[in-house]
């Protein structure tokens, strides 16, 4: 099976699953359930690619495990956070902006778009399943990056969940733990996870699949991650402006050094 055929099969399957999820969202009147499926979608792509590409190798199994551990943890975390809550405010705003036709538009703008993005980001996973090269240096580097990223994302989410569980912290800023060094440790972790998967998938001539983690990086930093979230946090969290001044937006950095640099910029 060629990579083009593998991409075609995965896109067809994930699109069909997104269509079914869209039908459920209409019934629930909640488009934000798509977020819960985000991690699971990659797990589906990883295992489908594994079974469709024949011979099993240690590197192919390694890729499946890395994607599965990341995707299942993320989906379980989001499902627990989502349970019993109304539609996410981002989708509520979109629904209000589009109007009565949102139920139709969401099929393409929310569910269809996520299927497309998912398959682009997963290109290293699919290409890696077609390569039977043995595990080498770049693959081990990928595992190291994935491990650091996974810990950042999982620990960051855990710290945030505990912080939000305390009613006294409502409208307050979490600036302890990993959140002391970066305003978005979970997004930074996601960033490292996908560059780790990219390197873990490298074999012969698949460097071009860097467009997958590159797209994910752009989304996390400039589009649906940091930029979109902070628009609301600046208005809804007390002291968030001060938090921005002393804390790196994405890449972890000692807060005091960040604050000192900020003061120098002001003096200039």
TrEMBL record:
Top-level taxon of the source organism: Bacteria
Record organism: Tautonia sociabilis
Keywords: Membrane, Transmembrane, Transmembrane helix
Protein name listed in UniProt: DUF1295 domain-containing protein
CC terms in the record's Gene Ontology section: membrane
Keyword field contains 4Fe-4S: no
The keyword Cytoplasm is assigned to this record: no
Pfam families listed in its UniProt record: DUF1295
InterPro entries tied to this protein: EmrE-like, UstE-like
């Amino acid at each position: 099976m060629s990579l083009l055929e593998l991409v075609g099969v995965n896109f067809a399957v994930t699109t069909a699953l997104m269509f079914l999820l869209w039908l459920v969202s209409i019934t629930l009147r909640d488009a934000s359930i798509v977020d819960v499926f985000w991690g699971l979608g990659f797990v589906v792509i990883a295992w489908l690619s594994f079974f469709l590409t024949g011979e099993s190798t240690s590197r192919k199994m390694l890729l499946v495990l890395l994607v599965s551990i990341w995707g299942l943890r993320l989906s379980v975390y989001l499902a627990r956070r989502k349970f019993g809550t109304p539609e996410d405010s981002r989708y509520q705003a979109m629904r209000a902006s589009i109007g009565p036709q949102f139920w139709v538009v969401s099929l393409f703008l929310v569910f269809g778009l996520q299927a497309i993005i998912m398959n682009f980001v997963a290109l290293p996973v699919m290409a890696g399943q077609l390569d039977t090269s043995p595990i080498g240096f770049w693959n081990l580097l990928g595992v190291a990056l994935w491990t650091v990223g996974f810990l950042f994302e999982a620990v960051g989410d855990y710290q945030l969940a505990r912080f939000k569980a305390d009613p006294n912290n409502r409208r307050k800023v979490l600036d302890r733990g990993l959140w002391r060094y970066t305003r978005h440790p979970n997004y930074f972790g996601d960033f490292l996870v996908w560059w780790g998967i990219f390197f873990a998938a490298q074999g012969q001539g698949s460097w071009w699949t860097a467009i997958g983690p590159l797209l994910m990086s752009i989304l996390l930093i400039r589009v649906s991650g940091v930029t979109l979230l902070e628009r609301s946090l600046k208005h809804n969290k007390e002291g968030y402006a001060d938090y921005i001044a002393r804390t790196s937006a994405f890449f972890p950095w000692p807060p005091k050094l960040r604050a000192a640099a900020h003061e120098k910029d002001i003096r200039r």
